[in-house]
Amino acid sequence: QEAANMARWLCSALFLCLFVMIGYSISPCKAIPQEANALYDLFLSTGGTSSWLRYDRWGDFSSGDAPCNWIGVTCSGVYVSQVNIHDNNLTGTIPPSISSLSRLQALLLYNGKIQGTIPSSLGNLVLLQYLYLNNNLLSGTIPSSLGDLRYLYALSLFNNRLNGSIPDQLYNATALRGISVYGNQLTGSISPLIGRLSSLQIFYANENLFSGTIPSSISQLTFLKQLWLHNNDLSGSLPNNMGTMTSMTQFFADSNNLSGTLPSSLGSLPNLEELNLFDNMIEGTIPPALVRMPSIFSLILSGNRLNGTIPDFTGAAALITLETLLLNNNFLTGTIPSSLGSVTTLIEVQLARNQLTGTLPSTLDNLINLESFILSRNNLTGTIPSSYMRLSNIEELYLSFNNFTGTLPPSFFQSLSPTLQFVYLNNNNFFGAVPDLSISSLPLLEQADISGNMFCGPLPSWCSEPHSANQSLSCGNLTGFCNEISDLHSFYDNAGGSGWTRNEGWSMPYGPCLPIWEGVTCSPDSHVIAIDLQNNNISGILDTRVFNLSYLSHLDLSANRLTGAVVLPSTSVTSLQTFSLRDNLYYGSLPSSISALSNITFLDISQNYICGPLPD
Asked: By C-alpha distance, which of 457, 432, 435, 577 is closest to 510?
């Protein structure tokens, strides 16, 4: 995006350069000697014949119109007006004698390997309008003398190795329309003097080491269209009066240390198309005005400390423009507003890593242009609406680490878009059979993960068969969940489950780690670790299959009506630590195997009808 914007700016600026060129005829007259010598100095100092890719006629003084006939040189009368030798593998340094080009209006030396410092003598080029030195290896500071260039229109120094601060004197160059210094090692703060540049339209200062706050005087730049401040060390709050910057189309301040709240005045910017404040420390709620900007198509507020709810999109102007909505990695609460489904222009929605609750609105099936839908790590519940299968352009579907439940139809994957590349349903509460997945129907699929759920049944072939090197497909331990359900159902049936006082969930074909299974506690990865069914009118015999639950550490069946001989786990059961059969109807003697249960730390079989000696 930055490259595209820069290309647009450069094209615009170069168009203006061409306009300047057209305004003056190329003279057949020979330039004055000191200007010819200055150009020859530049030729020799920047590599000349040893490095330049094109140097037609440079150094040839025999022609009557030299140096005005040298490639890249434009003259007006006997004066050089433009030097345009960009993308020509220039090396070495810029000689101070370049300042002898007294009528120079454009110096375009970008995209080379020029080293050294920017000569302070450039401040003597009093008619200079365009200075493009970007994409070189320049070091040192920005000369304060550039502030003397009263006609300077565009200053492009990006992607060099410049350090120090932007000199205050530069803000005296009030004709500036564009400043681009990104991709350097500049430090210091953005001076409040920037408010002097009332004609400024572009300010690219990203990817430096700027610190301090964004000055409130920046709001005086009513013609500013693009403000790039991202990837710095800026702090403090956003200015509250930014609503006056009505020409602004782009505001990027991501990856800084900004704090405070979002000023609602940002919602007053009629032309703002892109707002990116990712990776800061901004707090408070999202002003509803931000989703009502008439031109916004990219709203990125992820990676902050925002709280409150997602704004209502009902009647918002953004309904016809918004394509990207990134609110992930915040502290947002509440539900996903159903009005979001009215924003049919959306292509990317990221709401992951918040504290959202509730179910998925069925209205989101209207987002027919949606390609990326990321909701992972919230507290969302309910089922996936079947109408979501209408999302025919979906490429990324991330629903992992929520509390979604229900079954997935056998044709779930086949119903999704053939453009699908990533689908994550892992670590939820889905149950039932695993849907089939035909690799041929999803030719672009790279990753699919349904692990950490409670699926059961035959293991589909796609879970185990080899895949191509660029595919990662995971089903998790389906067999373990199936066995746990089977063992628990056997225990239920043999212990008179239908007559239990509390038996909610036990007769269901799925689980058991849904919260509706009475008395069952599960681990974070959905394995049964505790069963507490004391005083529950349990009768019959204790089915030993309950000891097959390989993660079970606590079993309390006290105060029931279990009968028969005392049943103990075998010595191969290593997970069980506490076990109570207190106050039941057991009789007979204790089995000798009781002395071998070294892993059990608490065993209570009191208040039964057990007799005989204690085993050794």
From this structure: 432
CA distance 153 to 63: 33
Q: Dump pLDDT digits (tens) for 376-400.
A: 999 999 999 988 888 889 999 999 9
Give me the residue label for tokens 């293991």: 459
For residue 569, CA distances in Å to 77, 215, 614 come to 105, 73, 18
Instruction: List, for residues 144-178, the tens digit of each pLDDT value.
Output: 999 999 999 999 999 999 999 999 999 999 999 99
Task: State the number of CA atoms in the 13 A half-sphere of 203 facing the CB.
Answer: 25
Alpha-carbon distance of 401 to 356, in angstroms, equals 12
| Contact status, residue 500 vs residue 536, Cβ threshold 8 Å | yes
Whether residue 249 is predicted with pLDDT greater than 90 in this model: the reply is: yes
pTM of the model: 0.81
User: In this structure, how many other beta carbons lie within 10 angstroms of the beta carbon of residue 510?
Assistant: 22
Q: What percent of the chain has pLDDT over 90?
A: 69
Q: What is the 3-state secondary structure (H, E, C) of 278-342?
A: CCCCCEECCCHHHHHCCCCCEEECCCCEECCCCCCCCCCHHHHCCCEEECCCCCCCCCCCHHHHH
Contact yes or no for 305/329 (Cβ under 8 A):
no
